[in-house]
Structures are given as C-alpha cells and as structure tokens.
Write a structure and sequence with these properties.
By secondary structure, the protein is of the alpha/beta class. The protein has a single domain, classed as 3-Layer(aba) Sandwich (Rossmann fold), CATH 3.40.50.720. The chain is built from 9 helices and 9 strands. It starts with 16 loop residues before the first strand and ends in a 21-residue tail after the last helix. InterPro entries: NAD(P)-bd_dom_sf (IPR036291), SDR_fam (IPR002347).
Amino acid sequence: MTAPTEHAPAVDPTSSLVVVTGASRGIGRALAEGFAAAGHPVLVTARSADSARAAAVGIVDRSCVHVDGAEVTPRVRGIALDVTAPDSVAAFTDEVSRVAAEWDAPLRTLVNNAGTVEASEGPIWEVDAEDMASVIETNLIGVFRVVRALVPTLLESAAQSGEPVRIIDLNSGSGASGTTAHAAYSASKAGLFRLAQSLVDHGHDRGLRVFEMAPGVVASDMTRSMPMHDHRTGDDWTAPQAVVDLALALASGRLDAWTGRYVRAGVDTPESLEGAAGTLTPGDLGDGLRTLSVRMQ
C-alpha cells in the first residue's frame, strides 16, 4: 500500500524562526545565509559569542530579502552555543525562547550542523583516544543535548499553529555505509540515524518531521583537512548551493513525505524528491539506507 503524500501548508518564512548550529563558517554559514535570504529569522551559533555575532553581521551584510516587494533587513542573531556543555545548551534554550517572543517568530526549524571529525585517519588503536571521544561528544551527544532541549519548544509551536515543525540533521554517507578511516565520525553519524528514528516514532503524530540530510562533500576547512579528499577537484566537490536548496525545501514543508528518511544533496534535488514522494511506502524505498523508521505516515 502506498503511503499518502503529506500536503503541509506552505511555510511563511518571515514568521518561522530557524536555528542553525555551528554556523560561523563552512556548510553551516552557507545554510544560515540561505535561510536568511529566503526571509527566515535565523539564529546562528558558534562556540564563542564573538564568532557567532561576527557571522550574523556578515550574513546580514550579504543577504537581500524582499517582502511584499520591499527590501527588508534580514533578522539574524549570533549566540554562543557549545553543544558539548550542558550549561551552554540550557542558556541557549532560554535565549531561543526570548528571541522567538521578541521577533514574534516561533521556532519551526532546527538544523543540527555543528560537527567535527577526528584529526587522524587509520586504525582506532593508533589514533588519539581523546580526539575520538571528542568527535562522539560533539556530533552525537551534542545533537542529543540540543534536540532534548529544543524539541519541547518545537512541539509547542506545532500544537499552537496546527502545522508541522522540522529537524534537519547534517548526516553523512559515512553514517549510512561507514568510512573506515574515520571510525568515530562514522559512528557518530550512524548514531544520528537512531536518534532520528526515535524522534520520528514519538513525534510524528505531534507534528514533528525529521530529515537526515547528507551534504555530499562540500569544500570546507573540515573536508580539506581529511587526506581521503586530497584527490578532489572542481566538480568532485558538492556545490554549497545544492545543500542550501535542499535544506530550504525540507524546511518549507513540500518534502514532508520524506520525514524519517535519508537524502543527499548533489544527488537528490527538491524536484526529484517531490516527484518521487507519491511512490514512498513505509519502511520500503528499495534502499534500506534511506529508511529510518517504519512508522512515518
């Protein structure tokens, strides 16, 4: 039996707050710029308040937003967040609620982007144990802390509006099939699939939609530090705009039929996913790696 395609109301970006973690540079910065340019109020985070604020100022300077034919200044604010520190997550959660009230824009999309990779490639018995542990702490436990803190706010937004809210995790092919050179990174990303599965199972009926989005291989400080990518040139890298376009589509509601699934920028496009949505069946996509839960529709 084919699962029904969800038809969520179109999201009004101007009244839908987006949080992007780890947004001072790289993919997170590109995503924050994309959401701001689309009209969303955006909170960008970095471990230091100075980095977060500088990123917010830079995004405002680069973004041009038009509302009802008039150019408006994007609403972007930078706030410190260390996902590995419970006190920082608690303080950030309070700040999200305060800014949402100030801007009259409830939190409707959380983008878990903050992440890192171990410095060395090779057998786990030869790498630095603390480096490995730090990757798990940031990429998996850090996401858990942020999700646990902000999902109640997201669910409240869904209850008050009667419309879905969304979490987009920056995942990876390393989580889906593994990258042996980076065992900690792969394990952390695989763990995100299991967190998402639980979120889908417990949150779907309350309006929560969850997506695991792999950005492909975008040229960034992190990927350029990985010897396994030394061979890449030109089109071997994923264009940042492809990641932004897919994230915006996921946040818009047009791809809600894909909740609980794994999508990949540079391969999947908003148009290809939208076109395939009517063929989805719970627990069966012909590709088990794409399916996180059988309880999706």
